[in-house]
# Entry
Amino acid sequence: MVALAPFTEDALPDVQVWFRHPEVQRWLGGPEWPVRQFQLAGEGIGEMFRGMRVLRTHSWVARDAAGTVVAQVGGEVYDRWCAPGDPAEPGPALGLAYVVDPLRWRQGIGTATLRAVVDHPEVSDVVLFAAGIEPENVASTRCAVAAGLLPDSTVPDFEGIVHHVLRRGA
# Structure
């Protein structure tokens, strides 16, 4: 249903406009959010983040059959997975964030995008995929669950996040 391609600056205008939508701003932030990905590209590799070492980053856009950019997804690959307060699990693990074009909501784009990430050859070594979602973000929760990322807890962490996790092979 979607094909992933690297998120490059020529796709930025397509993605950035989505961040003017109040719901996108509520959960992710404003139009500067996707710009920061290019400003921070390559930074943090090898550094520790919440007990996990950053191995690499990935950022893609999802295109529909017509080639239109309909979603953006990306994150960091870590050497292990360690939700706050939980014991570490062996990795590699990919922590994800994603956004869907508001004009394409409720069309299965987010679910298809997350499934495309799990199936992407660049992350074939990843054994755990995780998306941190506020429980009030019902649409994102439904999308993650439909893609196979299930809540690891019913109780939000110290930031108010529930981690939705897919363990490859589980």
Remarks:
- The first strand starts at residue 3 and ends at 6.
- Strands lie at 3-6, 48-49, 52-63, 69-81, 89-100, 128-133, 150-151, 162-167.
- Residues 128 and 167 are 5 Å apart (CA to CA).
- The radius of gyration is 15 Å.
